[in-house]
Amino acid sequence: MITLNNVSKRFDSFEAVQSVSLSIKSGEIHGIIGASGAGKSTLLRMINLIEHPDEGDVIIDGETLNHLRGKRIRQIRQSLAMIFQGYHLINNKTVFDNVVTPLELAKTPKTDRAEQVLESLRFVGMEELKNQYPSQLSGGQKQRVAIARAIVNQPKVLLCDEPTSSLDPNTTAEVLEVLQRINQEFGVTVIIVSHEMEVIKSICTRVTVMADGRVYKEIEIDPTGVHKMEHSAEGFINRLKPSGDNEHA
Ligand SMILES: Nc1ncnc2c1ncn2[C@@H]1O[C@H](COP(=O)(O)OP(=O)(O)OP(=O)(O)O)[C@@H](O)[C@H]1O
Q1: Taking every annotated instance into account, which residue ranges of this chain make up the domain ABC transporter (predicted)?
Q2: 11 lines ligand 1 (CB under 6 A)
Q3: Ligand 1 neighbour 130 (Cβ under 6 A)
């Protein structure tokens, strides 16, 4: 269980996230949606403390992350993997070497690394391209490598920051299918930030709608795919424009 308790984040005098409280259950696929500048990425980045909250607490399975120090915080952060819109692959390393990096950092025994990397690449359908470099891959393939790298250490949580925003609809569907399998087969909690309602509706079980640094609405999506959304929230989301040319909500 991930609990954010009145978390706030300021950049100079601008309050990007304002006293947000939110609970995310283990094993759910949770969407965070809102217009550009609503504070979605900042909120996501506070869950693994890439951004440290100015106020409030980030509580993961009963431990207050922002109060921890040293080895314990490193252990917990290792269980919180992340993928990004821009993939963040290392361009002068092969696919295999990108995916092995977290195992090197975690000091996994060398004899175990290759099998874990190949297993991870197999899961995302990228094993055959293990010797390629990122520049030789399509956007969807790069994101699948980034996902393989994120899951190679068997995280409990996968944080996804606009994972499909650079991809076409078919590739988006493929990447979302991989995220759904990670959730279903490994029980990984998946949190997806997106400005695209179609992405959120297709795989999320619960959605937080953000506007102006605050939680605007919490929405349940039922498993049959028919979402129980209040009219006002749906109207709000449908007015969101593609990223880049959004006005603040
Ligand atoms: N490191 C930073 N320094 C200064 N301002 C920042 C920083 N990070 C975010 N902001 C500002 O905080 C606000 C919220 O940004 P954030 O990226 O969280 O929004 P978002 O909802 O994810 O939008 P987008 O989809 O455009 O990324 C924006 O106005 C942004 O300019």
Answers
A1: 2-237
A2: yes
A3: no
